[in-house]
Design a protein that fits this description.
195 residues; elongated; 23% strand; 11 strands; three-stranded parallel sheet; alpha+beta; FAD/NAD(P)-binding domain
């Protein structure tokens, strides 16, 4: 088989690799060692879209991505990627201060958040023990992410842009020669089978 060239080679076709490979306007080869993409952590992932998770920079980036997810990854996903879930953050005895700090930081930017007492929290989640929950914060805007649908959308975008997915090709050797840059060959990859 003749050697194949690409502008960019991405190793690993899970969520991170598929999303990285899908977006460049270049000739991309996405190499996966398993017989199918997303076999390991991506295939076992339960993901929550949360604009209240992480530090301020993470929350800003998450919010900036919301429209993309709501548009079904610019129309590439077959079904909605986000499904309303809601999330309850509760404080046990001794954690009141942390819950109040969370409320003070997040509630000004998230007007849908609600501060709940024990009874209100137990109405939402009846299995909570009344002696173990002091107060809670409910954020109805948290949503499940359809990981499989999003991953599939990235793979479709890769193919639409002329990229190629190669499965069953674990990379066994990498070597660098000749510098780098768009006009200079640089990296040789030796997968178990020919590309």
């Amino acid at each position: 088989m003749a050697a194949e060239t690409a502008d960019i080679i991405v190793i690993g076709a899970g969520m991170a690799g598929a999303s990285a490979a899908a977006h460049p306007a270049a000739r991309v080869i996405l190499i996966e060692g398993e017989d199918q993409p997303g076999y390991h952590s991506t295939g076992r992932s339960a993901a929550l879209f949360s604009e209240t998770y992480g530090n301020l920079a993470i929350r800003i980036l998450t919010r900036a991505g919301r429209a993309y997810y709501e548009s079904r990854a610019d129309g590439l996903a077959e079904h909605p990627i986000l499904t309303p879930r809601g999330a309850l953050f509760f404080a046990m005895p001794g954690q009141e201060r942390q819950l109040e700090e969370m409320w003070a930081e997040l509630s000004p930017r998230h007007p849908t958040m609600a501060h709940l007492d024990t009874a209100e929290a137990r109405r939402l989640v009846p299995v909570l023990r009344p002696d173990k929950v002091i107060a809670a914060i409910y954020e109805p805007g948290e949503m499940d992410i359809d990981v499989h649908g999003l991953h599939g959308a990235y793979l479709r975008l890769l193919r639409r842009r002329g990229g190629r997915l190669v499965t069953g090709a674990p990379v066994l050797h990498l070597s660098h020669a000749g510098g780098c840059g768009p006009q200079r060959p640089g990296t040789a990859i030796s997968p178990r089978r020919s590309l």
